[in-house]
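Q: Here's a chain of 180 amino acids. Please give me its 3D structure as tokens.
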Amino acid sequence: MNRFGSSEGLAALLIAGGILLLAVQFFGGAASVLWPFFIIVPGLVLAFVADRADWPRALMVIGAVITGTGLILLFQSIYDYYQSWAYAWALLPLCAGAALYYAGDRRHDPAEKAVGKAMIEWSAAGFVALGAVFELMVFNGAHSWGRIVLPLALIGIGVLLLLRRSVKPPPAQSNTTDQR
């Protein structure tokens, strides 16, 4: 194994990139859908080489985020649904967390795995929550109840925060003497 890791893996990625470029030349109409591969492939190469060459983990995380960005754009390109970027960006920390989890698993570092797992969980939760808000209440498919529920929910949360702030907890009693 050379200092860049598996030369066979790198060769396979380069061949895949070349095939993709040739396919775009011969099937030009598909380029309007396949252009995200110009983001996905470099991200995969960076993540792969950073992992195999034991480069800093940050480079593998950057490669994972670049790859994730390309995959999101590929989905949006296929379905012509670019408005989903309003919440799809929340998946990028998931990509970073997946890279950290993988790196922690490879290097037997439970703390790094835990950070990666937490990032995956919080990112997925944020994606679902933001997706629900945007898809149900903001975008064109919003139902009439959605246009009312969101403002009422915001007002309600604001009122609860104000009430919670105005209600002060009773002072803590010191327990210096025990009277029994």
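Q: Can you summarize the key feature?
A: The chain has a mean pLDDT of 80.
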